[in-house]
């Protein structure tokens, strides 16, 4: 059996990459719950057993294909007195269908301890980076609350509660002021 495994991997060295690409696409389109291992395998052109063999589970594959590192890189630069609007502008500018789908998928799958941990990691990274810029003893707590506001904005955008005709610049100003209140409190 070891011999067969070695031959198979030599013949198809890009199988894990094909699985990742298929999963990335399908999780983005249908979320975690709406994507099956069979659908991933079909899109990748492989047997479903190979998905499990390479990644262990659909959840592990989901976590591997859900990027979180450095997502907000550069969004905390600039003047502190306009940081709220800058963050809101950044989110509204990056909030494409893929990002909103991934956010929704993470929130819907948060009953999983591993996915909940990923959400905590994302929130912690955001808060740590923002808190580094904020004055005051409660900087990290305020940064966590700004993170909650970002999550709320993403959820509202995902639910399409804000009409698409809404002026994004005006929305960034309004939402930015709400975040700025927390940024300025010390």
Can you give keywords for this protein?
186 residues, mainly alpha, elongated, disordered N terminus
Compact overview of the structure:
With 186 residues, the protein is an all-alpha fold. 69% of the residues lie in helices and 0% in strands.
Structure description:
- The longest helix is centred in the C-terminal third of the chain and has 20 residues, at 139-158.
- α3 crosses α4, α8 crosses α9 (139-158) and α9 (139-158) runs antiparallel to α10 (168-184).
- The protein is mainly α and 186 residues long.
- It is 69% helix and 0% strand.
- It has 10 helices and no strands.
- Mean pLDDT is 85; it is low at 1-13.
- 26% of the residues are buried.
Reconstruct the topology from this structure:
Layout (H helix, E strand, L loop, with lengths): L1 H10 L3 H16 L6 H8 L3 H8 L2 H7 L18 H12 L2 H12 L4 H19 L7 H20 L9 H17 L2
Helix pairs in contact: 2-3, 2-7, 3-4, 6-10, 7-9, 8-9, 9-10
Biggest β-sheet, characterized? none
Which percent band covers the strand fraction?
A: under 5%
Q: Please count the helical segments.
A: 10
Helix and strand succession?
HHHHHHHHHH
Helix content: 55-70%
Name the overall outline.
elongated
Overall average residue pLDDT: 85
Total DSSP E strands: 0
Output the radius of gyration.
20 Å
Helix/strand class: mainly alpha
Separation of the first and last Cα atoms: 64 Å
Poorly predicted ranges (pLDDT <50, ≥5 residues)? Answer: 1-13
């Amino acid at each position: 059996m070891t011999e067969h495994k070695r031959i198979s991997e030599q013949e198809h060295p890009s199988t894990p990459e094909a699985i990742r690409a298929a999963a990335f696409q399908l999780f983005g389109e249908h979320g975690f719950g709406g994507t099956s291992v069979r659908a991933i395998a079909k899109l990748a052109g492989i047997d479903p057993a190979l998905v499990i063999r390479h990644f262990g589970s659909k959840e592990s594959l989901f976590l591997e294909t859900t990027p979180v590192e450095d997502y907000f890189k550069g969004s905390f630069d600039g003047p502190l007195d306009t940081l709220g609007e800058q963050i809101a502008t950044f989110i509204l500018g990056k909030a494409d269908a893929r990002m909103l789908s991934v956010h929704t998928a993470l929130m819907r799958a948060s009953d999983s301890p591993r996915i909940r941990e990923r959400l905590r990691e994302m929130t912690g990274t955001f808060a740590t980076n923002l808190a580094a810029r904020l004055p005051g003893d409660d900087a990290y707590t305020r940064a966590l609350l700004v993170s909650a506001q970002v999550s709320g904005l993403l959820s509202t955008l995902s639910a399409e509660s804000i009409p698409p005709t809404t002026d994004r610049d005006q929305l960034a100003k309004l939402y930015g002021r709400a975040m700025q209140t927390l940024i300025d409190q010390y």
